[in-house]
Design goal:
The protein is of the alpha+beta class. The protein contains five helices and five strands; from the N terminus they run βαββααββαα. Strands 1, 2, 3, 4 and 5 form a five-stranded antiparallel sheet that branches. Helix 1 packs antiparallel against helix 3, helix 2 packs parallel to helix 4 and helix 4 crosses helix 5. The protein is globular. Pfam families: Dabb.
Length: about 130
């Protein structure tokens, strides 16, 4: 199982309606076939300024590839990203002890970046340093 986590905060200008819409879109993405379990909601750790979190459990690398390229995921991100101020990816974790797993996951991410450069360009400025 690969557990993928995002922590994020909304732009101060995001209305309550926009925030609820973003969370609904995230829940829709988290319910695609390749996801085994999920949760989307408030972050309980406020030490880093992130107010919300997104977590999905994905069975394996083939399921992760399907998740990353699922049409629901691809159409949801443009609805989400304009309303976010900051985003942190991870920490991700897995019960799969394959030593190369992190590299293989990164390769899937790099593949998506190459296929969807406009997505990568919109994501880049949101990533927390």
């Amino acid at each position: 199982m690969i557990v993928h986590m995002l922590r994020f905060s909304f732009k101060e200008t995001a209305t309550e309606e926009e925030r609820e819409h973003v969370l609904a879109v995230m829940r829709r993405t988290a319910s695609v076939e390749s996801v085994s379990f999920s949760t989307v909601g408030q972050s309980l750790d406020d030490t880093d300024g992130f107010t919300h979190a997104y977590c999905v459990g994905i069975a394996d690398l083939p399921a992760l590839r399907r998740y990353m390229h699922d049409p629901v995921h691809l159409t949801g991100d443009p609805e989400i990203m304009p309303h976010l101020a900051r985003l942190a990816i991870g920490p991700d974790l897995s019960d799969d002890m394959t030593p190369t797993l992190a590299r293989e996951i990164l390769a899937l991410h790099d593949e998506k970046v190459a296929l969807y450069p406009e997505w990568a360009a919109e994501l880049g400025p949101l990533l927390a340093a």
